[in-house]
Each structure stands twice: as structure tokens, then as C-alpha cells.
Design goal:
Elements: E1 14-17, H1 21-30, E2 38-42, E3 54-60, E4 69-73, E5 75-79, E6 85-88, E7 93-99, H2 100-112, E8 117-130, E9 133-140, E10 145-150, E11 152-155, E12 168-180, E13 189-194, E14 204-213, E15 216-225, H3 231-245, E16 251-264, E17 271-273, E18 276-278, H4 294-309, H5 321-336, H6 341-351, H7 354-361, H8 367-374, H9 379-388, H10 399-403, E19 410-413, E20 419-420
Parallel strand pairs: 1-2, 1-11, 2-8, 5-13, 11-18
Antiparallel strand pairs: 3-7, 4-7, 5-6, 8-9, 9-10, 12-15, 12-16, 13-14, 14-15, 16-19, 16-20, 17-18
Length: about 425
């Protein structure tokens, strides 16, 4: 990667802290303007750099990062607890998978070709406002202290803890990249939610299958609940799902991912000072009711770059107030048990055209469409929940919640390469 060279003590323009999806998306859009110098601060190789992650989103037509897309699907499916399937082609939308390593390589190569962009490998310790803008205090890859100065700083590092909220559920999961001994998957169809798994006492659970080839797929077990599972519990759930539900037969687990995503009505600050802004999941880019982040990050990055191009320091909210209000009602209804999660989502996909529903989940629907979608939900429980929300106090996360470190970072265990037979119960090495 070019321009990682000697550390410099001054950076005119913009400093972006963090080289994940949010940071690199913003750097990409800012780098298109030759009048906006941009420096990206990425953690050096080592424990602070996240492992390989998977991001998924839907989009119409080829997007800005199409070269980083591993594969995509034109048809999507949801299965109810009884096995009934809702399958549709949400044209013109396609469901896309991006792997973080490929995405980073693409954006790095684009930044390298732009003379006003710079990538710096350093560990950021402190971001603060100053009379001239803001500064980032770092330690360079060579161990030397370094201070970067700019007119604006956009910080994409994970937040510490959750702001005051009324509802906090966790979307927690573990996924296997599997290879089967015989063709078992339809590469043209992705399973967004498969509720043919045992349901927890509180919350809901589902399988998630993204075929990569007739004999390869990402298979995940996911829960929406208050507390993550242990890794052995996820492993047991995945063994049951792949063996007893999907009936995949003998398979090899080539790698694994595990993570926790907060689903909350907390208000994440977009600005922490006159010249310091939060972006990405820490700035509220994660859609509370779904856990999806990548598409919102792209929209927000384009809007920030456009604002700076016109001399405005502005970070528009990643989601509209109307969408956040609806998400707050759904999260509360799920958390209280007023709605049955598997039935709620299955019926929603069955009763609403999938293209319209995906636009709704992405914040692109009209108020009239949203009203129609609302009529296809359990109206009584949802109205009761909406009526009580204004009277509920927002609370701080307790110590146990804070210790969960609920971020959207996925942890990949590349050592999970042992061949698994569906009839065997031993754990692979960690």
C-alpha cells in the first residue's frame, strides 16, 4: 500500500480514524475530491486489527463497490417454523455479500491512486477538539508518538457501551463456511431467515444460509435475545441445523465467524465536539430492527462527502426519525413477547411484496407504503407498544451489558478446519 511512509505531525483536511467499512467508505468518497486531503488511520498488523468479516446488503444495479462483491443472489427465501417457504425475486434489488479483506484491498488501491489521500498505520489513542479543528494522538507502527491535525475528524472506532435506551436486544450469531461432500445448495437462492430451529424461551432464533456454490455456503445460527451464548452452545446449534434441519451430510468447516450486534433504540451521538464526528455503528448506522449496517454506511459517507464539498461540516443521521420510531416499537414488542418473532417475520414476508419490504427495511419506503406494511403486522400489540413507549424512561446499560462489548465486529476463527461429520459431537480446536 502506497503512502504509508514516514509519519507526519500535521494533516490538512480530514482525518478518518478506523479502516473498517465506515472509515474506508468515507475515505473513498472524500478521496474523489482533490480539494479535500484525507488521512486514514488504520491499526497496525496485530491484535487490534479485526479478523475477516462478512457484510451483506441489497442494492439495485452495480454499486460503487461491486468489485468487492463475492457473490449475489436474485432470489430470497424465508422459512416458517413449519417449513413453509416464502420465496421471491425482489427485482431490481440483489442481495450481495462482501468480504472485508477484498473490500479493504479495493479501497486501498483506489486511495493509492489519489494524490490527496494517505493511509497511515498507527494506533489511535485520543481524539479531541482544538482551536484549529481537531487532533488525533497516535502511536505509529514504529512505536513513535504521533499527532495528526485536521479541520475535521471522523471516528469510526467501536463505541464503549450503549447510550441510554428503553430496549436492548442482541443479535448474536456464529456462522460456518462449509463445504459439503455432495451438492446441497441452490446458488441462486439465499435463505434470510429459517425458523426451523428450536426457539429460545426469550427472543427468537433462525438459520441463515448464503450459498457460494452447489457444495459451499455460509451457514449461520442467529438469535435475537438479551444474552449471547457460549461458543459450544453455538456449535451445538449449528450441528443440529446443518445435520437435522438442512440434512447436509458430511461436511468440512473451512472457517467460522462469530459476533454480537446491538439492536437498540438508544440514540447514538453523531457529533462529539465542534470538529469531531462519530460514524459507522458507533454513530448509529446499524439499523435497530435488522442489524444491517453496510448500506447505511454507504449512504452516510456519500452525504458527508457532499456536505464537505460545499463547505459544510455535517453528518446526516444514517436513519430517519420515522424509521427509528417504528424500529423502537418492534424491538419493544419482541422484547416483551407481545408478538411471536418467527410468526411476525414470516407473515410480514408472506403478506408484503419482498422488494417493497426490503426498501422499507433500508429506509427507502414512502409513508403510505409504511402504513400499508403496518396493517400487515399484529396491529393490537403494536399499537399498545407504541402507546407505552413515550412513558418509558431511558436507562443506562448495566455493568453486565457494558461487559458484553456489543459491537458489529465479527471474530473469525481460521483454525476451524477440522472435518466435521454430522454424526460427531467433538469440538474443533480454538
Amino acid at each position: 500500500m502506497s503512502r504509508t511512509g514516514a509519519a507526519q505531525d500535521a494533516a490538512d483536511g480530514v482525518v478518518v480514524v478506523g479502516g473498517g467499512a465506515a472509515g474506508l467508505c468515507l475515505a473513498h468518497w472524500l478521496g474523489k475530491d482533490p480539494d479535500i486531503p484525507v488521512t486514514v488511520v488504520e491499526a497496525p498488523d496485530g491484535p487490534l486489527r479485526p479478523a475477516e468479516r462478512t457484510w451483506c446488503y441489497w442494492e439495485a444495479g452495480p454499486g460503487e463497490f461491486e468489485e468487492a462483491v463475492v457473490t449475489s443472489w436474485t432470489r430470497l427465501r424465508v422459512r416458517g417454523p413449519d417449513g413453509s417457504a416464502v420465496e421471491s425475486e425482489p427485482a431490481p434489488l440483489r442481495y450481495r455479500m462482501v468480504r472485508s479483506g477484498r473490500f479493504e484491498q479495493l479501497v486501498h488501491s483506489r486511495l493509492a491512486a489519489r494524490p490527496t489521500a494517505r493511509l497511515l498505520r498507527a494506533t489511535a489513542h485520543e481524539v479531541r477538539d482544538t482551536p484549529y479543528g481537531a487532533e488525533v494522538r497516535c502511536t505509529g507502527a514504529d512505536g513513535r508518538p504521533l499527532t495528526l491535525r485536521g479541520r475535521h475528524v471522523f471516528d469510526s472506532r467501536p463505541a464503549h457501551g450503549i447510550p441510554p435506551h428503553r430496549t436492548l436486544l442482541l443479535q448474536h450469531f456464529r456462522g460456518w463456511f462449509v463445504r459439503t461432500g455432495a451438492p446441497r445448495f441452490d446458488p441462486g437462492v439465499a435463505d434470510l431467515m429459517d425458523f426451523r430451529v428450536p426457539q429460545p424461551r426469550h427472543g427468537l432464533a433462525f438459520g441463515y444460509v448464503l450459498p457460494l456454490a452447489p457444495d459451499r455456503a455460509l451457514v449461520e445460527y442467529t438469535e435475537f435475545s438479551r444474552t449471547p451464548l457460549t461458543t459450544p452452545a453455538y456449535e451445538a446449534a449449528l450441528r443440529h441445523y446443518t445435520a437435522d434441519v438442512l440434512r447436509l451430510g458430511p461436511l468440512t468447516v473451512e472457517s467460522a465467524e462469530q459476533g454480537v450486534i446491538p439492536m437498540t433504540d438508544a440514540r447514538f451521538p453523531g457529533r462529539t465536539g465542534p470538529a469531531v464526528f462519530r460514524i459507522g455503528a458507533a454513530g448509529g448506522a446499524t439499523r435497530p430492527a435488522t442489524g444491517y449496517t453496510f448500506a447505511a454506511v454507504q449512504r452516510q459517507s456519500r452525504a458527508i462527502a457532499e456536505a464537505l464539498r460545499h463547505g459544510r461540516a455535517d453528518v446526516p443521521p444514517p436513519h430517519g426519525r420515522r424509521q427509528l420510531a417504528m424500529d423502537a416499537v418492534l424491538l419493544r414488542a419482541l422484547d416483551t413477547g407481545r408478538v411471536d418473532g418467527p410468526r411476525f417475520f414470516t407473515d410480514l414476508f408472506r403478506r408484503v411484496p419482498m422488494e417493497r419490504l426490503l426498501r422499507f427495511l433500508d429506509g427507502g419506503s414512502t409513508p403510505w407504503e409504511e402504513f400499508g406494511i403496518g396493517l400487515r403486522t399484529p396491529v393490537g400489540p403494536m399499537l399498545r407498544t407504541a402507546a407505552e413507549l413515550p412513558f418509558l424512561a431511558r436507562r443506562e446499560a448495566d455493568r453486565r451489558e457494558a461487559d458484553r462489548r456489543v459491537t458489529d465486529r465479527r471474530v473469525t476463527d481460521r483454525r476451524e478446519t477440522a472435518r466435521r461429520d454430522t454424526g460427531r459431537s467433538e469440538e474443533s480446536p480454538r
